Amino acid sequence: MQFKVIVIELCVSHLLQPLFVCRVRRSPVYFGDFKISDLNNVQRRKRFWKTAHETVHKYKKINKDNQCKIRRQRNKIKSLNSLVDELLKEKRISAAQSIESLPETKKQLLFRQLKKGKSNKYSPELRCFALTLNFYSSSAYNYVRKIFGKSVLPHPRTRSKWYSV
């Protein structure tokens, strides 16, 4: 009898102990997670050095990608400006054929393409054009939306909301 009681007490005391040990401090993963005291430990110092290099490398890559993007945009602007100058020299277009001479719908399409979707409101002329184009041919609507960019013409769900209102 006495033996059974001891075994039960050992089992109960074993159940009260935690099955796993929680770590008090996570290992530093990000550059800001390190503390000055981590530099005293050799392994943590190496981890700090590696994390710092990875962080610097990551931001250098982001910076380089952004600089390439800006350079491509500037080259595109230069090429478009040179195209307009060339057309003016060859007298294929005149100053009278500027943006102001375009119909309102074409102006709205052009400005929305230049803005790339920074505005979510569509003018009444553009709404009318989108609904009419979709009425005549949904494949033509999808083609125009694909070619000029998705921000120029509204998403089909937006069109369906216009019909329901």
Automatic annotation (TrEMBL):
The record's InterPro entries line, in alphabetical order, gives: THAP9-like_HTH (IPR021896)
THAP9-like helix-turn-helix domain boundaries: 88-162
**Pfam families, A to Z:** Tnp_P_element
Q: What is this protein called?
A: THAP9-like helix-turn-helix domain-containing protein
